[in-house]
What does this fold into?
Amino acid sequence: MRMAPAVAVAVSGPDNVGKSTQARLLERRYLAHNLGPLDDYDPRWRHAKRQGLAAWWFQMAPLREVVDVLACSYLARSSAAQACPPGTLALLDRGMTMLEASVVATVAVREQADHAVAMERAGQLLGPYASDIARAQRVERELLLLHATDPRRGAHVALSREQTVTAMYSRYQHALNEHLHPVSHDTTIVAGDLSIMAVHADLCTKLRQQSVAVSPPAINDRWTVALGGLSECGKSSAGDHLQHEHGFNRLKIGYLLECAAARHRITDVYALPAAEQAELLVLELDRYATAHHYQHQFSIESLHSFDLTRELGKLLGEALTLVYLDASTEVRCQRGTQGPDDVIERDKTKRARGAHRVRDIADVVVDNGRSHTELVHALDRLVRCRLWQAHRPRVVPAAELGLPDHLTDFLEFMLRAVTVPGDAATLIAVTGSGARGKYLQGWSDLDVLIVAAPPALPSIGTALRDARTRLDGVKLGLTVVTPAECQAGALTSRLLYTIASIASGALPVLWAAPGFHLPQPDPDTVIARTRRDGATAAMDLRRLLLRDSVDVRAVYKVAALLAKIVLRCEGRTHHGDADALDAFTKLAHLPAGPLDPRLDPTATIALAEQVMTWWLHTLEPTP
It folds into this structure.
């Protein structure tokens, strides 16, 4: 069977746009053959370097000699690519587009010509090589990387990444960028503010459109949290919490680098420049993410090198969150199991690598010098702020809820009392049956949720005392939580579900402070927390059923809660108690419950017992 010929992929673009980096990423991902720099393809480059490459290029050598060296180098490398074994992915740092662009820019500098004149002159200089250039272009899959859509901006970015810039090089870079614009959208990628791996994803996508068998990296669509800090700062505790509470896949940076070293036969991976270490680390993480397609969040530890950390940020961009765990030397020495001297000695090694400087570029700095509870809440807040989208609640007047007049009066009084400037509530909402038009006089409670910072609690307490007579005997189910508890998800499953309903717009509120947005818990978190609360609801229901005098109303409420929990875990949502119990009886193939529990207490208790029996049956081993 005849194998497909080698595929030549050229990555072109102006200086400092990342051509070599992208070629190196392809090389390591696909064990491709990198044809190396142009200098390897013509011995005259050695002479040019001895004279000083810039002086030779722009001043000393005849223009035709410079063009001949360039053209011969490009064509020789193209021939080498075509001679690669069948099936090889051959990589070229700069393709044939760059040959013309380099000559045009060189003419513009040396002859002080505008772009049109430089184009015409370059065409004359490259004329003798035209047929060979055309033949080479036909076999290359070339992609063009640009800093920006505007050539002047592109030249500015390219020059800003140089340590020193001469006037001649500046003119060259502006002419080069001008020639590379306008561009074809099919083969061009504008790097802009994109991360290196985001650019790589675009590059792979465009190569696939040219029938090159490469795939975009998976790691861009995942979230990686990198943990840094000095010895005994709590990196392991943080990784453990992210793993067990939030489902992160926990990996060690050292392990990933060792795997990369073995894969690429690198004797000492730590001897490589920081940028290449970071590339190997990210590619190994990407390989892991591809194999574990169901895993969407990773934590890596530990960030002991400042330079490596900085390069990781360039590679992953917004897909990476750098977390630095901070604690005083005294606290960390107390935590060390081998004594304070061991902690101080390990710190010396980490400080030598710049581990303490990671704090300066971290996205989040967590003070872990006090309690473990503060650490886990900080991590919870980090995860929730990333994964939960914030939404502006939908506000409606109290009169629109259809409640009895005295309850509407109570709510309006509370609104006036606790939304005044100063220590005001952030959000006020009616929940439960009162929010959904299902309120039953003499049976339903009035459930109210208030989101408020701690300083607002005294004014809320005062308002409640002044307004309680307006309830006219109706039981008030009041819940007060803080914005911080909402952000960290430090809520019961019922409250998580309520907050999610408000954030999604399914449940309106009576008041939301200007500019306030509520985080919307994700369904997986709500279901996981709900499943845990099923056991509590079952125990409460059993306790109620075993009392000498059964409280039918309480039994009905808790049975409905357990039904809602079961249904939610099955992917079904029912807000009302009656609706949930009706849906549950159908799910469990039980007889229908009473239409009105107030009128048939015996049937209500029987239904609650059936709900309990069904729940307990699910815990028994399968015969």
Notes: The CA atoms of residues 129 and 355 lie 54 Å apart.
